[in-house]
Design goal:
Chain lengths: 223, 486
């Protein structure tokens, strides 16, 4: 990817520096991220209430359903903010700075080793965050699978169940309501652990709040 | 001996009247032969309820009536019928009976006035009793044997068809006729509702007294008469300021083609026939209203105090109808019981197939299990309350702890149209193996599988264990390194 500027040749516009800080997360991404985070937590909680009515009674079933539906539509709309931003800006390169699989797996292995051992020894992350290369290989592959496959499937199955009668034909084509429901629940189960682990890894910066602060300000602090 | 039909006096009277009958017969023949020649010939119409002699020849009717394609004066025809009946009633208005094979006695008495006042008052006796002509009246010597009263009624039932062809055809397609074909001794024949000789007119069928359905369905009729429908009908209320009256039994179940409404979508269709804006009203507040109306029986919410159940039934996705047991298929009950017994550990549809359940389905193989939420009994289905009492909150069905309370049945439509339901283990709704079979059934929080519950627990455990483990491991490594440095 020769068009991607190297670390040494960063355009000035990307270094809206306040001292040594890099502007990594533009405003649309930050807005999307936090709305998405709130939405996902709300969906998981209302989803749990809907599914386990007999165990929890935090809110009425009707409230849980209505909240779940409204939040879901907000999250779907928000998804298109994210998608639009990356499709219609050059920032899409952050997911694929280089299309070199060998290099990718090599970096991924180093990243796993870092999180498994190096981080405890005080080593620096093998991935250097740059505006055009902000994700380490683990983040890159995970986020792509989540955002381009898992989340759309969850939206789609949820949408089908929102109006079962209207979507009778596609539901039948895909194996019936039982199948759609099971897929929706499996993804919900995945997001329960994903959200917890994601939040924990967000606390693995220089200080536990470094990455959270970065996600509010948009500036990457030097590690 | 009480066999009045075969006593000596009857035989004597019969012989004495022979000359009179012969003269009358000749007279009739003369009229039949001469009168048509004097009038314009008519096209012969097939016999229907509208043009049969018996229906047209009523007192007060004037003009002519068509008999076997010939026009006959009503008054003379009526006189002739009454004259003939008079001969029969001469003996049969008296207390007479016949000893039957089972030891019981069949009354041969016809209450004269009741008969003459009945809807059949102007129908010739021999129109129904076709085996008893003037020349072939049973006598002691003919020695007709009748097993029991029921057998005789079943045998005579066919005689209604001649005049009431359409109604009789409807009746033949009813659950009542199907039960009789199976040998039921309780299912009603025509005369059980309409009486043999004191045949009631339509006006006699009042909802207030439950006649004639209450005779067999007393509990259901009582539930109905206390329901919003029964009360409205009894009080003469009309629906929505129109002139539609609240339904009586026949309005939903049909008068002659009596159906068990719990089958498929019949009940919903019947309700919507009067409550045509039902979808609009439910859409205003009920999420997924269309689906709720599809899989929740109206009575589940509108008979709010009734017990509920989930009923799983086989659905033919090709024919788009519930699979019904065909005549001659056996052991369906055993299959259902097996499904019910083994449902908790497997897929009820697969169990059913494995037991040869597909044998009777011919080419059809695209079968799935569908579920409807129903009320537990037929009585409950009739306890429809005023809409102010109807269930209108999600929590009524999706309430905490509902899962432990729910009843599950597996059912099959029998050849007679009724549904045979067998209790099943409620766990069948959450069986992972049954996900594909019960693909068309889903209740929010309803058909949870233990497998998915365990996966969720593992996911939650991983979401906690990974951060805690990683954090702890980091701390241990740091301490170890610090100790090494020291």
């Amino acid at each position: 990817m020769s068009s991607i500027p190297s670390e040494e040749k960063q355009p000035d516009v990307w270094i809206k520096a306040r001292d040594k800080q890099l502007y990594i997360n533009p405003l649309p991404v930050r807005i999307w991220h936090w709305l998405n985070a709130l939405g996902f937590v709300a969906l998981i909680l209302t989803g749990t209430q809907i599914r386990y009515t007999e165990m929890f009674n935090v809110m009425t079933f009707e409230t849980a359903i209505k909240t779940h539906n409204w939040v879901a539509f907000a999250v779907i709309a928000n998804y298109f903010v994210w998608l639009g931003f990356y499709l219609f800006s050059d920032k899409i390169t952050v997911y694929h700075p280089e299309l070199n699989m060998r290099k990718f797996f090599d970096k991924a292995f180093k990243q796993i080793m870092y999180y498994s051992y190096g981080i405890f020894r005080g080593e620096k992350s093998p991935h250097k965050v740059l505006p055009h290369d902000k994700f380490n290989p683990m983040q890159s592959i995970t986020y792509q699978i989540v955002m381009l496959l898992v989340v759309p499937v969850q939206f789609f199955t949820g949408l089908l169940m929102w109006d079962i009668k209207r979507f009778e034909a596609p539901i039948a084509m895909l194996g019936g309501l039982g199948v759609i429901n099971t897929v929706h629940v499996l993804i919900y189960i995945f997001f329960v652990s994903f959200t917890l682990v994601h939040a924990y890894m967000g606390a693995l910066g220089n200080t536990p709040v470094t990455h959270f602060r970065e996600m509010f300000t948009g500036y990457e602090e030097e590690h | 001996m009480k066999d009045g039909c075969s006593d000596g006096n009857s035989a004597h009277n019969y012989r004495a009247e022979l000359p009179v009958i012969t003269i009358l017969f000749t007279f009739c023949l003369f009229f039949c032969a001469v009168l048509p020649a004097q009038e314009t010939p008519k096209t012969k119409a097939p016999p229907t309820e509208a043009n049969t002699t018996e229906v047209a020849a009523k007192p007060g009717n004037t003009g002519s009536v068509e008999v076997n394609g010939d026009e006959v004066d009503v008054t003379s025809r009526l006189e002739e019928i009454l004259k003939q009946n008079k001969k029969c009633l001469m003996c049969h208005s008296k207390e007479k009976s016949k000893l039957l094979e089972d030891g019981s006695e069949l009354s041969l008495q016809v209450h004269k006035q009741e008969y003459l006042d009945s809807a059949h008052g102007e129908v010739k006796c021999i129109s129904c009793h076709r085996d008893i002509g003037n020349r072939k009246h049973p006598s002691k010597s003919t020695n007709i044997t009748i097993n029991n009263q029921r057998d005789y009624s079943v045998e005579m039932n066919d005689s209604c068809r001649k005049c009431h062809m359409k109604k009789f055809k409807e009746y033949k397609g009813s659950v009542h006729a199907a039960l009789i074909a199976q040998g039921s001794t309780k299912a009603p024949l025509c005369t059980d509702c309409h009486s043999a000789h004191a045949v009631e007119t339509m006006e006699a069928y009042k909802p207030e007294n439950g006649f004639p359905c209450k005779k067999c369905h007393e509990n259901i009729f009582e539930a109905y008469s206390e329901s919003v429908h029964g009360q409205a009908r009894i009080n003469g209320n009309t629906i929505r300021d129109s002139h539609i009256q609240a339904p009586i039994c026949a309005d939903c179940h049909q008068a002659h083609e009596v159906t068990a409404l719990a089958i498929g979508d019949v009940l919903r269709t019947t309700c919507i026939a009067c409550h045509e804006n039902v979808m609009l009203l439910h859409n205003q507040w009920l999420p997924n209203a269309g689906t709720h109306l599809d899989i929740v029986s109206c009575a589940v919410c509108h008979a709010p105090f009734a017990k509920r159940k989930f009923d799983l039934h086989l659905y033919d996705n090709v024919a788009k109808a519930p699979v019904a047991e065909k005549e001659g298929e056996v052991s369906i009950q055993q299959q259902l019981q097996a499904i019910a017994a083994e449902g908790a550990i497997g897929d009820p549809l697969e169990i059913w197939k494995a037991r040869g359940g597909l044998d009777g389905l011919g080419e059809t193989v695209d079968i799935s299990l569908r579920s409807r939420m129903e009320v537990m009994s037929g009585v409950a289905a009739h306890q429809i309350a005023d809409k102010s009492f109807a269930v209108r909150t999600c929590d009524s069905c999706h309430e905490p702890g509902w899962r432990e309370k729910q009843n599950v049945t597996v059912s099959m439509t029998q050849p007679d149209g009724r549904r045979l339901s067998i209790d099943a283990d409620r766990e069948v709704l959450g069986s992972v193996e049954a996900v594909n079979s019960i693909s068309d059934f889903y209740k929010l929080g309803g058909n949870k599988s233990r497998f998915l519950d365990i996966l969720l627990l593992l996911s939650l455990a991983a979401g906690i264990a990974i951060p805690v483990g990683h954090f702890t491991l980091g701390k241990m490594i740091k301490e170890y390194m610090q100790r090494g440095d020291n």
